[in-house]
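Onboarding guide, step 5: your first structure request.
Type a short instruction followed by the sequence, for example:

Predict the 3D structure of this protein.
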Amino acid sequence: MKDHLTAREQEILEILKRDPMISQDELAEKLKITRSSAAVHISNLMRKGYITGRGYIFNERSGILVVGLTVLEIWASSGHHADNNAEAGQIEFAFAGNGCLLALELARRHLESNLITFLGRDAVGEQIYDHLLQKGVKVQNSIRSAETPTRKRLVYSGPEGTASQVEAGGGSLTLIPEAILAREELIRTAKILLIDGDLPADTLSYLASKIIEHGIISSAVNCPLSLLKEQGLLAHPQFFLVCTDDGLAAQMKIVAASEPEELFPVCRQIVDEGLYALVVIFRDQGLILATEDETVFLPASPLQATGNTLSVTAGIAEGLASGYRVRMAVRMAMANE
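The system replies with structure tokens like these:
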């Protein structure tokens, strides 16, 4: 994880990107500072990993790469009558999709990440693109198209509380292996790869092959265990998985557990296939961590939330990217909720 930039360092970095051949004398004159001050700032940028070697070669490699969907969610509820008082309906908007939400969660933790997603070159796509950039997400490598609009999801709640949803626009169909192939170098050099389980099956298969080929530390959110097993990821020694206790029980077709220890045998069964780590969010009580070496329950403190699959996955990725072992990474994920 790179150190944060000062305002002056950020200003210098932008100048160097526009004019990589600028001399330190020219830089000092441009900023109205001394040459020695300019040299110190350049040295700091090199130490922090933003530029490398001579000639201001930029080190844009991202430690964490996210590949997933971005959706504009539109929540609409109809008005209803209660005691003859009419209540107006409401419409709310939110940026969603596992890819977008994972990247934003990493940004909340002050982590730089690259996001490969699809955004149309329409008003919605530009708004989401700008929002992600402002939050610190590198979205420049995403797939853009003027012909295909940004994906939208309408969720409608009727007067009786019934909900229905309709989706339209691009998204999963545009994140196909052929489109991602041009970004293979980003995948190959990623320290950690987080993927959206809602991606098309052939895209998941392509990403799984690259994870195994290059030995990438990785995880997937909202992806069925059966599909992960089919792709060989449950046997990958650098793949970790986060799920909820209810979700695990449903997928393994077992009775929901009342105590975390009741899930230990099934957790060990999954890890024995070769998985690096399985983390189960046990309601608001804490996390179960199962690895080759141990299966333990890590209770949450009374004032500490356990988080959801997205936030815990991002938190573990943060710890692993910083060089911590998985148990400490899980602790870090809990601490940052």
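Each response can be followed by summary notes, for example: The CA atoms of residues 101 and 310 lie 7 Å apart.
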